[in-house]
């Protein structure tokens, strides 16, 4: 199974994981959606999306940042609608349930990924990296 992590926003982070990362990048939302649909057409996928609608605290942000937050929330709704309509299995993940805002150095040490990353692509990657590691550990404990 291929796991896909999505960090929504103007700069959409997308990470593809199948026994290791296949790609980690930042792209436009429509290109990320095309990639998910293409991967789904070629095999079994599970998508995890950071859902800003579940964020409970924004801090003392200015008006522009709050407008951006609204846009990201709308993106989460669009992703949810697309995946539901296409019957692609997915999970909407609260930002508090993901390891976000890792520096490039920490991310490299943790995952072993040596390619270039952005904050958005690292956030997307952590959505699937953390999940696959937990699943692996659970399988090992059952043996």
Structure description:
The protein is of the alpha/beta class and 143 residues long. 48% of the residues lie in helices and 20% in strands. The two termini are 21 Å apart. Mean pLDDT is 85; it is low at 62-68.
* Fraction of residues in β-strands: 15-25%
Number of H- or I-type helical stretches: 4
Chain-averaged pLDDT: 85
What's the story with the biggest beta sheet?
Answer: 5 strands, mixed
> Based on CA inertia axes, which overall geometry fits?
globular
Rg estimate, integer Å = 15 Å
Across the major sheet, the strand order is: 3-2-1-4-5
Structural class: alpha/beta
Provide the descriptors you would attach to this structure in a database record.
143 residues; alpha/beta; 5-stranded mixed beta sheet; globular
Set down the secondary structure blueprint.
Layout: E1 2-7, E2 12-17, E3 21-27, H1 29-42, E4 45-50, H2 63-85, E5 90-93, H3 104-111, H4 119-142
Short description:
This protein is an alpha/beta fold and 143 residues long.
């Amino acid at each position: 199974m291929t796991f896909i992590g999505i960090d929504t926003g103007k700069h959409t982070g997308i990470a593809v994981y199948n026994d290791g990362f296949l790609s980690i990048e930042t792209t436009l939302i429509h290109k990320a959606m095309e990639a998910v649909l293409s991967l789904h057409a070629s095999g079994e996928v599970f998508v995890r999306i950071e859902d800003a609608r579940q964020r409970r605290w924004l801090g003392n942000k200015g008006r522009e940042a709050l407008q951006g937050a609204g846009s990201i929330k709308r993106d989460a709704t669009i992703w949810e609608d697309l995946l539901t309509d296409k019957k692609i299995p997915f999970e909407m993940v609260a930002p508090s349930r993901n390891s976000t805002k890792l520096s490039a150095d920490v991310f490299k040490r943790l995952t072993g990924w040596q390619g270039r990353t952005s904050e958005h692509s690292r956030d997307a990657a952590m959505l699937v990296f953390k999940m696959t590691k937990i699943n692996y550990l659970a399988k090992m404990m059952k043996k």
